[in-house]
Design brief:
Layout: H1 9-21, E1 29-35, E2 39-43, H2 65-72, E3 76-80, H3 82-85, E4 89-98, E5 101-111, H4 113-195, H5 200-278, H6 283-286
Antiparallel strand pairs: 1-2, 1-5, 3-4, 4-5
Helix pairs in contact: 4-5
Length: 287
């Protein structure tokens, strides 16, 4: 604090109320009052790493917000990074007039470290939520695609089952033809035996027909066994496809329910970012 000196009435009024100004705020603020030559009263904020306990007697120069306010004869606002005094802060200065003459300036410094930390948290939260939203949208799209693929596979497996069933019917027909051919060969052999020597050539043909019928019957049975295995495999595939379709449908439905919540979180994150910016918005300059 400065010793009592004789100043103009306006400066005396400011000096009279200055000790009470910081009691109206809950933040740690700095307060400087200067005439046109030097700092005549101050309160140095405790959280700032300034190099002096008091700046009374210091001559404001370029870069000082008080100096700029006096020179420009208007309110000046500056935002200073934490590189200078350990914490980021905003300095606001207004010139003090008496009879239209600038007789000094009053400046307040307020830390915005809380705003900066809130801003960083809000931005990090916003990025995380945006990434989650993007992943949810991607998973939802993939779930829908998986569901569509599952439905298509289900149709294919069902068609395959129908074709196997049709093949099984054909194999049954072949089996019947083989049985009838075998019967025909047996009858031919009996007839050849009945006629004796004259039926020997026909007997050979009858034996070959019976062998062909036997081979056809055996082949049809083997094919039938193979088709049975294919049919069982197709049924398992069909069951798995149906299960996959149910799971993907459930997943898509669950993600659809999650999406509105993620959107709300995204809006909330945007609101926090805006709130962080508004904490030190110069509303006076807007009016």
């Amino acid at each position: 604090m400065s010793d009592h000196q004789t100043y103009c009435k306006t400066l005396q009024h400011f000096l009279a109320v200055a000790p009470f100004i910081n009691q109206f705020v809950i933040d740690d603020i700095g307060l400087f009052i200067s005439d046109t030559e030097k700092v005549i009263w101050d309160i140095v904020p405790k959280t700032f790493k300034w190099d002096k306990a008091s700046y009374v007697g210091e001559i404001p120069g370029p870069g000082w917000v008080s100096y700029d306010a006096i020179q420009q004869r208007k309110r000046v606002v500056k935002e200073v990074g934490k590189e200078g005094f350990g914490v980021p802060y905003i300095a606001v200065a207004i010139p003090i007039f008496e009879n239209d003459d600038v007789v000094g300036a009053i400046a307040i410094q307020q830390s915005v470290d809380g705003r900066e930390r809130l801003f960083e948290i809000a931005n990090s939260l916003n990025k995380i939520i945006k990434a989650v939203d993007s992943n949810v949208q991607q998973i939802a799209a993939e779930a829908e695609e998986l569901s569509a693929t599952g439905q298509q596979l289900g149709i294919i497996s069902q068609n395959t089952k129908f074709q196997v069933d049709e093949t099984d019917t054909i194999i049954g027909d072949i089996h019947k033809i083989a049985a009838q051919t075998n019967l025909l060969g047996l009858n031919a052999a009996i007839e050849a035996a009945r006629v004796g020597v004259h039926g020997q050539g026909f007997s050979v043909v009858a034996d070959e027909v019976r062998k062909l019928a036997k081979t056809s019957s055996g082949s049809s049975k083997n094919i039938q066994v193979t088709l049975k295995k294919i049919q069982e495999a197709v049924e398992q595939i069909n069951a798995a496809v149906n299960e996959m379709a149910l799971v993907s449908d459930h997943q898509a439905a669950a993600l659809t329910e999650v999406t509105p919540s993620v959107n709300e979180l995204s809006k909330l994150a945007d609101s926090i970012v805006k709130l962080a910016k508004d904490l030190t918005t110069d509303h006076y300059a807007r009016s």
